[in-house]
Amino acid sequence: MNASHQPDPRDRPARLTVGVVGAGRVGPALAASLQLAGHRPVAASGVSDTSVRRAAAMLPDVPLVPPAEVLDRADLVLLTVPDDALPGLVEGLAETGAVRPGQLLVHTSGRYGTKVLEPALRAGALPLALHPAMTFTGTAVDVQRLAGCSFGVTAPEELRLAAEALVIEMGGEPEWIAEENRPLYHAALALGANHLVTLVAESMDLLRDAGVEAPDRMLGPLLGAALDNALRSGDAALTGPVARGDAGTVAAHVAELRKHAPQTVAGYLAMARATADRALAHGLLKPELAEDLLGVLANGAQGANGAGGAEGGPR
Fold first, then answer.
1. HSE (CB half, 13 Å, CA atoms) of 310?
2. Cα-Cα-Cα-Cα dihedral of 174, 177, 179, 181, to 10°?
């Protein structure tokens, strides 16, 4: 078919009306993605000025109304509030009678499965947990990033196909997560993504302190290659002084960090210990070199003070 004659998704009959409770970074992006698949956003709720502006930009002509009214208007409701706020929101909506029988109620929390939606289930709602494993900016680029994004999916068996279909319509890849594994699943993502931001930001700060004018340009190729290698090869991709057992170099690092950025020492030591354990377990770190290295990491301050005497040690 000629591209110029392809139908606009907005011209298709809408299969579901969609509402968003919590117009943060995630909700408008998911609603906009569902709109591209032929569904129709009809209402959103947001309190802050930022939420109001975001909803207006990503969901134009969609009215902002109280949460109860969002549920009154929509067949499919996205609950996209912070994790800690979700249980109270669900209980409140159920207690006030806002939940309708047969209504699809979808939350996007990584931490929770469907048990958190029990109050709404008792009111007749159909509970789904669809968590996009993606970081969001609150802009239209998020809709594009959903293409190929994995979603952690938890739902009753009878709704599993519906949950997976919604994810596929948003361009995502459904990955089934058992209810009891949701906290571990979420911890894994936080460890990889959230802590990565902290590590990169601290690394950029240290490079600036070392006189590097463009730390982002320096780190970009290095971190890109490291991430690619890690995803392809796992622990076999480990390199650097810890994996090599260069105790003297690590001691020097600790000494410099204590002098210039003491707030980073605890994180450096913790990550170095974890790296040493993995390198040792996978045969990358030689046992005869591990003892001195682990001593430096265990002693912390003593290892840093001894850096000057480690010149003749491993390099």
1. 22
2. -150
Closest CA to 104 of 196, 18, 199: 18
Alpha carbon 132 to chain centroid distance? 8
Residue 131, phi-psi category: left (phi > 0), alpha (psi -120 to 50), beta (remainder): beta
Evaluate whether 252 touches 305 at the Cβ level (below 8 Å).
no
Q: Which helix (H) or strand (E) holds 151?
A: strand 150-154
What is the sign, positive or negative, of the torsion defined by CA atoms of 302, 306, 312, 315? positive
* Averaged pLDDT in 10-residue chunks for the chain of 315 residues: 44 76 95 96 92 91 95 98 96 96 97 98 97 94 95 97 96 97 97 95 97 97 97 96 96 95 95 95 94 90 41 32
Q: How far is CA 294 from CA 41, 103, 235, 265, 269, in A?
A: 56, 56, 18, 15, 10
The answer to whether residues 188 and 51 touch, using CB atoms and an 8 Å cutoff, is no
Identify residue 206 by its one-letter amino acid code.
Answer: L
The sign of the torsion formed by the CA atoms of 207, 211, 215, 218 equals: negative
Which pair of structure tokens corresponds to residue 229?
Answer: 């290698």
